[in-house]
């Protein structure tokens, strides 16, 4: 259907005044009775848009391709690859970093209001040290048919080849983007606290085929899987080379501090660390429960469990359970363990889900600390906790992904009757 059919707007250009920010790195505008999600814009701007996608009756997607009246917070994009139709890695390159944090705060508030019915939640997304560029210490780059590495165009499978990625730490960007990867589908890269760079080559089905670690002292070629050393929460951690770890170098410390503050763990308590990865939160909280207490870290990935086991050997009160956090697995665990005093959960992007959230609320834990990288999933699960007798007693947001629309939140849920407030 073309522009003139009147049914599908793809490719159409028109002027709009841009409204509020929405979840997903765009703002909301209206045109001829339809909602238009506009990328590369800011609230209050007058822009010309080009519709990039129209698959829904209710809304279409568009890029701001010309700015007629700019918002005061608009800046020159520091990355030469970002902009309408170009690399899809960042959403807010055209926005002053302080304003990016205000936009993210507004999104968290809006999601909690809309999905959890909580109006006027007070949250101000906090800056992490290090500035808005060169923070990404772990990344996956796509590889095109010619062997060039880059990132995908927004909502597309097309790879935009890059010679650099200014939000990625320089050694990681250089290790991947300054060479060719013929035959590969993608490359994972991470740089650890010692400066060691691990690159893992993936085939077109996403399976790792080889790994290489380059330490500041020299290269260890073709290791089966590199080990990365990390420092956070006053402890040293070892994780799989490109296995899960907070991407921003300052994030793990900031999250550990926020989780510890919200959890307020006391000697003798039982703590559940769900989706535990290499044991970051469980290991950080274990000293506070002391020898009479117990910390159980639950994680599905075998490699992460092995890392957690090794990381927690000096903490006999901490143990690692390999298994899925789902209604069945969690039900079995709770039957064996009894009710925990504190639950920390840090699920992947999709969140824990309402069923797991209700099961956790059913334990009556005095504090549930929910670490979330998607405010929509968080708000949906907060709604499940609220429906099961908990209330939101505190929330903090961290700008752990500057230049992108992503935000990390830590929320404290307590039983309705509890007087705890943070
Ligand atoms: C966001 S990471 C958090 C890791 C850790 N808390 C940290 O901060 O380093 C989520 C973790 O959950 C694990 N995971 C994903 N789905 C799971 C499930 N259903 N049950 C248990 N673990 C799961 C992943 O392997 C990953 O290690």
TrEMBL record:
Highest taxon in the source lineage: Bacteria
Could you name the active-site residues?
373 (nucleophile)
Q: Where is the composition biased (Basic and acidic residues)?
A: 224-235
Using the UniProt annotation, give all residue ranges assigned to the region (Disordered): 197-235
Q: What is its EC number?
A: 2.1.1.190
InterPro entries assigned to the protein according to its UniProt record, in alphabetical order: MeTrfase_TrmA_CS, NA-bd_OB-fold, SAM-dependent_MTases_sf, TRAM_dom, U5_MeTrfase_fam
This one is known as: 23S rRNA (Uracil(1939)-C(5))-methyltransferase
Annotated organism of origin: uncultured Blastococcus sp
């Amino acid at each position: 259907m073309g522009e003139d059919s009147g049914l599908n707007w793809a490719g159409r250009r028109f002027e709009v005044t841009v409204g509020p920010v929405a979840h997903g790195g765009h703002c909301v505008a209206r045109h001829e009775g339809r909602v238009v999600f506009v990328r590369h814009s800011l609230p209050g701007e007058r822009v010309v848009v080009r519709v990039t996608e129209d698959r829904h009756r209710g809304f279409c997607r568009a890029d701001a391709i010309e700015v007629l009246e700019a918002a005061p917070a608009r800046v020159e994009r520091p990355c030469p690859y970002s902009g309408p139709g170009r690399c899809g890695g960042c959403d807010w390159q055209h926005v002053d970093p302080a304003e990016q944090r205000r936009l993210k705060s507004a999104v968290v508030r809006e999601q909690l209001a809309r999905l959890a019915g909580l109006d006027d939640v007070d949250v101000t997304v906090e800056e992490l040290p290090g500035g808005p560029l060169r923070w990404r210490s772990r990344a996956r780059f796509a590889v095109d048919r010619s062997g060039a590495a880059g990132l995908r165009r927004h909502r597309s499978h097309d790879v935009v080849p890059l010679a650099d990625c200014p939000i990625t730490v320089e050694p990681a960007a250089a290790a991947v983007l300054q060479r060719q990867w013929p035959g590969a589908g993608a490359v994972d890269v991470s740089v650890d606290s010692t400066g060691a760079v691990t690159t893992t080559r993936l085939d077109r089905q996403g399976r790792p085929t080889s790994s290489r670690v380059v330490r500041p002292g020299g290269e260890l070629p073709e290791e089966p899987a590199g080990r990365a050393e990390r420092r956070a929460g006053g402890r040293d951690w070892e994780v799989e080379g490109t296995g899960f770890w907070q991407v921003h170098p300052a994030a793990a410390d900031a999250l550990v501090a926020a989780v510890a503050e919200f959890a307020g763990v006391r000697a003798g308590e039982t703590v559940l660390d769900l989706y535990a990865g290499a044991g970051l939160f469980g290991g950080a909280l274990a000293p506070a429960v002391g020898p009479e207490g117990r910390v159980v870290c639950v994680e599905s990935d075998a490699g992460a469990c092995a890392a957690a086991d090794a990381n927690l050997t000096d903490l006999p009160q901490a143990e690692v359970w390999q298994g899925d956090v789902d209604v069945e697995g969690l039900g079995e665990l709770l039957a064996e363990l009894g009710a925990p005093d504190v639950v920390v959960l840090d699920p992947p992007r999709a969140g824990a889900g309402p069923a797991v959230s209700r099961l956790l609320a059913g334990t009556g834990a005095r504090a549930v600390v929910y670490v979330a990288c998607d405010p929509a999933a968080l708000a949906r699960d907060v709604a499940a906790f609220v429906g099961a007798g908990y209330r939101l007693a505190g929330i903090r947001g961290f700008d752990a992904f500057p230049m992108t629309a992503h935000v990390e939140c830590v929320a404290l849920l307590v039983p309705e009757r509890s007087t705890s407030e943070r």
